[in-house]
Design brief:
heterodimer; A: 170 residues; mainly alpha; Four Helix Bundle (Hemerythrin (Met), subunit A); 0% strand; B: 345 residues; 70% helix; globular
Chain lengths: 170, 345
């Protein structure tokens, strides 16, 4: 086993352990904090694959912003006793159904990954200016999709403000 | 003198390779040594900074400041450090112990990680990333979580209130912070901090981007939770915000991390707007230290001059003033760049 494989195994082990902690933790705030570790693990996987920009976006957007939003939402609606806020087995029937669904998703994904023929990229170091190439694509070829996504986000922000303040106060 | 530290590093690598280590392991040992040096410098530097802050505040308020231990009281912070190290480590019984203990560690680790990309002299960045500036912003955004962890785990309403204020403030001010750096990136055409320093050869970017510097400085003050934006700590109303329940060395770690962030943000400002390590006569690594210290003195000057701002004023200032101003700055920079290009051809 060479060093690359060892690094990959360490990162995936870290990510999976953190993901399991999200599911198994009894305390929902701890689950949310473990989710941040999972995001950081995914970012490390990106770094390991040479996609530094994507890894940093992962940290900035998910670990830095989305996770904080989740924690805020949890804190604002939390029950008084945080020790039992994340019940693992609410009832037996949904328990089995959930397990079945989860296995179906896992098997489906596994089959999909197994039967896809992946385009193989030429081996070698990644282009140093990946950010520039990404910007060329986003603001050149796909600029309409990019702008549409931007308008969608703007609408969501305006909608959130109107929902929170009430339409008559704007 | 100029290449002293770079030569030292190179000599060390060759010496390690002579010892029979492969280049990979030699680089790894060098990296470990570089990080150790950074951590040592940060820790020792905080001793000076705390002393300086107390002296500056004393000067502002027409007091003497620390003056008992050593000349000008300069051993005071060393004595304080020993006091903090030997203090009893108290963890209140109703806290979430795991998160309570990891919060200060997380904070200090994230703060130290910021130093990886800052060029502390010619060819002296630990990692010369081609997206260094973006790395700084994205890793810097993680400090929010450490404060949130500390505030929540303490199980104390003042701590939680302080943490909530800190998070609201830091997320709001992250946006103008990132936007004000975009002007510099547009002019340079690169996110690499060494390239940004190199692009400032004839004029510093403070001349081309004065508005961006002002918005960066204000947003950075808020990101650091320093006065006049120190609502999250507001001693008079929240005791110490998220740090209320911490004692001894754990509390000192937060303090250390805050000053570490102050140095990092000032060094970034010096790199982006004041020509980084460039300067006449003196070696490059002395210039960046001089510039960083001058900027930190401005931060201290502001903290001890201006009164604290109210929370709602603080938030509306970010959303209604800083973000529009920095957006207009980006537009003007873009138009200016196109006109400049047109004039050349």
């Amino acid at each position: 086993m060479n060093l690359d494989q060892l690094v990959f195994l360490a990162i995936s082990g870290f990510t999976i352990t953190a993901a399991l902690a999200v599911v198994w933790s009894r305390n929902i705030v701890r689950s949310a904090l473990a989710l941040i570790l999972t995001f950081l693990g995914v970012a490390l996987t990106f770094f390991n694959l040479g996609a530094g920009f994507l890894g940093l976006v992962q940290i900035l957007v998910y670990a830095g912003a989305v996770a904080v939003l989740i924690i805020f939402a949890i804190m604002l609606v939390m029950k008084p006793d945080p020790g039992t806020t994340n019940p693992t087995t609410p009832s037996r029937d949904t328990h089995y159904l959930g397990g079945l669904l989860a296995w179906l998703v896992v098997i489906g994904l596994g089959l999909a990954i197994g039967f896809t023929t992946w385009p193989s990229l030429p081996a070698g170091p990644v282009d140093d200016d990946a950010v520039g190439a990404l910007a060329q694509l986003l603001l050149g070829n796909y600029v309409v999709a990019f702008e549409a996504a931007a308008i969608l986000l703007l609408l969501a922000v305006v909608g959130a403000i109107i929902l929170a303040k009430g339409a008559d106060k704007i | 003198m100029e290449n002293l530290i770079v030569d030292l590093a190179r000599a060390l690598t060759t010496w390690l390779q002579h010892l029979g280590l492969s280049p990979f392991w030699a680089d790894l040992v060098l990296l470990v040594l570089q990080w150790t040096a950074i951590v040592l410098i940060i820790t020792l530097n905080v001793l000076i900074l705390v002393w300086l802050e107390r002296k500056v505040s004393g000067f502002m308020q027409q007091r003497l400041g620390p003056n008992r231990l050593g000349p000008f009281g300069c051993f005071q912070t060393i004595a304080d450090t020993f006091k903090l190290l030997t203090k009893e480590d108290i963890i209140p019984s109703q806290t979430d112990r795991l998160i309570f203990k990891t919060a200060p560690m997380f904070f200090i680790i994230v703060s130290v990680l910021l130093y990886a990309v800052i060029p502390m002299g010619q060819d002296m960045a630990v990692v010369d990333l081609n997206i260094g500036l973006f790395y700084f912003i994205s890793v810097g955004s993680l400090t929010t979580i450490a404060i949130l962890m500390a505030g929540w785990a303490s199980n104390n309403k003042w701590s939680l209130l302080g943490a909530m204020r800190a998070v609201a403030q830091m997320i709001s001010y992250e946006i103008p912070l990132a936007f004000s750096l975009l002007g510099v990136v547009m002019i340079t055409g690169s996110l690499n901090l060494s390239a940004i320093v190199a692009a400032q050869h004839p004029f510093w970017f403070i001349i081309l981007q004065p508005v961006a510097f002002v918005t960066y400085f204000i947003a950075a003050t808020a990101e650091l939770n320093r006065g006049p934006f120190d609502m999250p700590e507001a001693e008079q109303e929240l005791t110490a915000g998220a740090y209320t329940e911490y004692t001894g060395m754990r509390w000192a770690l937060f303090f250390l991390a805050e000053y570490t962030n102050l140095v990092a943000v000032s060094a970034l400002a010096a790199t982006l707007f004041f020509g980084g390590w460039q300067g006449p006569w003196l070696p490059s690594w002395i210039w960046i230290i001089i510039k960083t210290y001058l900027l930190m003195l401005v931060f201290m000057w502001l903290k001890w001059t201006l009164p604290r701002i109210r929370m709602d004023h603080l938030m509306s200032f970010s959303w209604k003033v800083l973000i529009p101003v920095s957006l207009i700055n980006i537009v003007i920079t873009g138009v200016g760049l196109e006109i400049f290009k047109g004039m050349r051809w």
